[in-house]
């Protein structure tokens, strides 16, 4: 597509993306240890010593932007560019930071706010994601960053709150946006023919997953183990946090003594939440089974529909016989599909254990536009990639064993699946017939940009903006 179109696309994402970069950068860099980055003569320079002489570079009402904020966001953007994303300039990032502050300031005027409970929940969840990258070991995290978990949480909480407010403001501003087929056609027809993007070959692939059901004898062993741990705690021979560190198989909370942080009702497994809301603060439950395993839960605090709890999780491991039963189950289901007694989509929706694909008829989707058509690069699983390479379009595999990786914990568990190679689309220039969903997503982004641009014209007159003279050269918001 044209360079102008690509610039607009960047701007659309900048408002939300930069806040995420900042919250990630809190873990990546400290303002007193930032590495020197080659200066861009057309943008504000980094101090040659590699140290940032921190100062306020912009004010929006009562909100400020520090030079260290800009540097952190820029360094994170450079890191992202090394993973295949185009690096925005410092001025583009500066403008995005300024827009975020405008949205926060305007949210206060318009009473578009987020609750402290929501912020705490998101902070805890973000921190747990980072902790999982260190195998759930807080000591390793402290060694890497020189800060405790509480210190790191405190550092990202303000950034999380700002990010949530910006997201909520964007949703509020664009809530009435609709995209019609006519809008998509107009958008497509306005792209110069010589600028139409070239799409790589794509495939449509579905799966039906069966997670082996662990035999009752193994489950009973885990229940008895958890009951014995509970009795030790009640007898005063051990405390809950110590037992969680020693026995829990939840990498995101074990190092925290099992502490999960705050969640809202409806965010955790139903069985877990039903147990939590039946407990009094400090009370410990009997073992509770969810899709993740067996939990022993202690309620720490409840605030209305939000709660803080800790748990000890032990996951049952399926035996060879358990896995063979799952294979037999899927092979029988495959026979019904091949004999056209049930469609693949219905079988996936009714019987697949993979929640991310089952509601979509078993088909994998592109996370950007929600399309069922994926480039081969999107298939990150090398086993899946090479399996498709040996299949014919329109065929379904026999049951296949594979390692199912939980994206939240990184834990790998044995599972069985059928794969359906439905379609293949050769590489081609963009067109309305084959690429409607992609073009619809791009049309929506373009319309969002137009709505936000009109909003900024009005909003920037309603808030006080003061930019440091060193950053005037960026001409931020000039075209807004």
TrEMBL record:
<dbReference type="InterPro" id="IPR050280">
    <property type="entry name" value="OMP_Chaperone_SurA"/>
</dbReference>
<dbReference type="InterPro" id="IPR046357">
    <property type="entry name" value="PPIase_dom_sf"/>
</dbReference>
<keyword id="KW-0697">Rotamase</keyword>
<feature type="signal peptide">
    <location>
        <begin position="1"/>
        <end position="28"/>
    </location>
</feature>
<dbReference type="InterPro" id="IPR027304">
    <property type="entry name" value="Trigger_fact/SurA_dom_sf"/>
</dbReference>
<dbReference type="Pfam" id="PF00639">
    <property type="entry name" value="Rotamase"/>
</dbReference>
<protein>
    <submittedName>
        <fullName>Peptidylprolyl isomerase</fullName>
        <ecNumber>5.2.1.8</ecNumber>
    </submittedName>
</protein>
<feature type="domain" description="PpiC">
    <location>
        <begin position="200"/>
        <end position="301"/>
    </location>
</feature>
<keyword id="KW-0413">Isomerase</keyword>
<dbReference type="InterPro" id="IPR000297">
    <property type="entry name" value="PPIase_PpiC"/>
</dbReference>
<keyword id="KW-0732">Signal</keyword>
<feature type="domain" description="PpiC">
    <location>
        <begin position="304"/>
        <end position="362"/>
    </location>
</feature>
<dbReference type="GO" id="GO:0003755">
    <property type="term" value="F:peptidyl-prolyl cis-trans isomerase activity"/>
</dbReference>
């Amino acid at each position: 597509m044209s360079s102008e179109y690509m610039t607009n696309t960047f701007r659309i994402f900048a408002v939300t993306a930069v806040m995420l970069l900042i919250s990630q950068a809190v873990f990546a860099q400290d303002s007193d240890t930032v590495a020197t980055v080659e200066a861009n003569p057309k943008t504000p320079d980094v101090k040659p010593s590699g140290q940032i002489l921190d100062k306020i570079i912009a004010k929006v009402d009562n909100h400020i932007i520090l030079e260290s904020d800009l540097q952190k966001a820029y360094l994170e953007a450079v890191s992202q560019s090394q993973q295949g994303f185009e690096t925005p300039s410092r001025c583009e990032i500066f403008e995005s930071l300024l827009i975020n502050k405008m949205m926060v300031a305007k949210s206060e005027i318009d009473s578009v706010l987020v609750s402290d409970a929501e912020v705490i929940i998101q902070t805890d969840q973000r921190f747990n994601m980072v902790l999982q990258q260190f195998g759930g070991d807080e000591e390793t995290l402290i060694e890497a960053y020189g800060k405790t978990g509480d210190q790191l949480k405190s550092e990202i909480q303000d950034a999380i709150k700002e990010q949530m407010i910006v997201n909520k403001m964007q949703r509020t501003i664009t809530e009435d946006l609709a995209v019609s087929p006519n809008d998509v056609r107009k958008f497509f027809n306005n792209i110069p023919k010589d600028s139409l993007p070239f799409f790589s070959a794509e495939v449509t692939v579905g799966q039906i997953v069966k997670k082996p059901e662990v035999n009752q004898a193994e489950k009973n062993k885990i229940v008895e183990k958890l009951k014995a741990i509970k009795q030790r705690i009640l007898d005063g021979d051990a405390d809950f946090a110590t037992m969680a560190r020693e026995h829990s198989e939840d990498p995101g909370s074990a190092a925290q003594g099992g502490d999960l942080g705050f969640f809202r009702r409806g965010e955790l497994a139903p069985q877990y939440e039903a147990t939590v809301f039946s407990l009094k603060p400090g009370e410990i439950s009997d073992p509770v089974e969810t899709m993740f395993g067996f939990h022993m839960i202690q309620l720490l605090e409840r605030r209305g529909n939000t709660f803080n709890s800790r748990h000890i999780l032990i996951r049952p491991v399926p035996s060879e016989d358990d896995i063979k039963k799952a294979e037999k189950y899927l092979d029988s289901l495959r026979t019904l599909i091949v004999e056209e007694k049930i469609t693949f989509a219905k079988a996936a929706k009714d019987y697949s254990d993979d929640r991310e694909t089952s509601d979509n008829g078993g088909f994998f989707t592109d996370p950007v536009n929600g399309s069922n058509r994926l480039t081969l690069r999107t298939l990150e699983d090398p086993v899946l990639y090479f399996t498709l390479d040996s299949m014919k379009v329109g065929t379904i595999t026999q049951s296949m064993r594979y390692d199912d990786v939980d994206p939240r914990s990184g834990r790998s568990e044995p599972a069985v699946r059928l794969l359906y190679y439905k379609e293949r689309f050769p590489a081609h220039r963009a067109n309305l017939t084959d690429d409607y969903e992609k073009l619809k997503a791009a049309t929506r982004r373009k319309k969002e940009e137009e709505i936000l641009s009109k909003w900024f014209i009005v909003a920037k007159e309603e808030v006080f903006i003061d930019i440091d003279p060193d950053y005037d050269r960026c001409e931020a918001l000039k075209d807004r």
